[in-house]
Fold this sequence. Notes:
This is Polyketide cyclase. This protein has 364 residues and is of the alpha+beta class. Helix content is 32%, strand content 30%.
Amino acid sequence: MLSDGFAPDASPDSATxxxxxxxxxxxxxxxxxxMAEALARMARPDAQWRVAHPMNExxxxxAALAGVWWPLKTALPDLERRDLILVGxxxxxxxxxxxxxxxxxxxxxxxxxxxxxxxxxxxxxGEVWQIDEAGQVVQANLLWDVLDLMRQxxxxxxxxxxxxxxxxxxxxxxxxxxxxxxxxxxxRDSLEQxxxxxxxxxxxxxxxxxxxxALIAMPQRExxxxxxxxxxxxxxxxxxxxxxxxxxxxxxxxxxFHRPQGTFEEVTAERARHGAGHYIRIGDGPYSVTGGWPSxxxxxxxxxxxGMPPTGKPVFMRVMDFYLHHEGLIRExxxxxxxxxxxxxxxxxxxxxxxxxxxxxxxR
Length: 364
């Protein structure tokens, strides 16, 4: 099966889910004096932290407190966490929670050089937390949409997005926070459908068949709901329907980034040879999640993506995908992607460009 490695019967139980959700909320809302204590309750002292650029990788809670949580809490002192999806599962013997939503607060201070707005802002996130048998974090993967917060602060360093820039909507079914284990058969079916869709994407012949019409007609259409929503990161934006997805993201993305070609197995092997692939593949009822650090390997050989000319450089993309399976098909797909890290690999310091004197106004 495509979902080999996923163990649906080993999903975290209700007590573990509820406790972990409480710890996530407590960390976000802890006072400065209590943040270290909240972090210590949730994560092992030697936990590995992998966070969106420019924070990147660090070892241990002390480094995470200084490099991630203190700066965010200082900038947004009334910080709170709003999960839209919280699911759990076990892959390759590792237990995970995966969450998608928004941090919310009033931006009273600067953050990562982004000037304070004094207004309400939302920082959307995709997060994957690996936990040990005691329920403590051993690895955190936090893809926070820094570029979208720059947009809210009135800074925009890229070409206008092809999709719509807006806070991501929650699942249409309003059942994304799963505090009890789901039917394991349904969880496996959800993940199988996602990976079957991935197979169609991997095996499509970009070099010989790439066109708008071919992308819309190819077998991916068998898996997407007619009213599909695709929520991309800032710089790409949100699209609706398969044609909107192809026009707003898939076609320009495939023109720009030349990926390995071949069968699903050959493409997977070539990605792995370059250090790319999935570290998480889980299903939890009608939800599935995949992600890699990095997930995608490609060569930047074509123009047009976010207004960028081709650089000829190899690129690696930190990506997560959250899926809702509804009415037998993939209804919604939320895609955290570390855009600042991607542009760094293409030779562009997005933050320096935005924070300089010639930064453009954000798209409306």
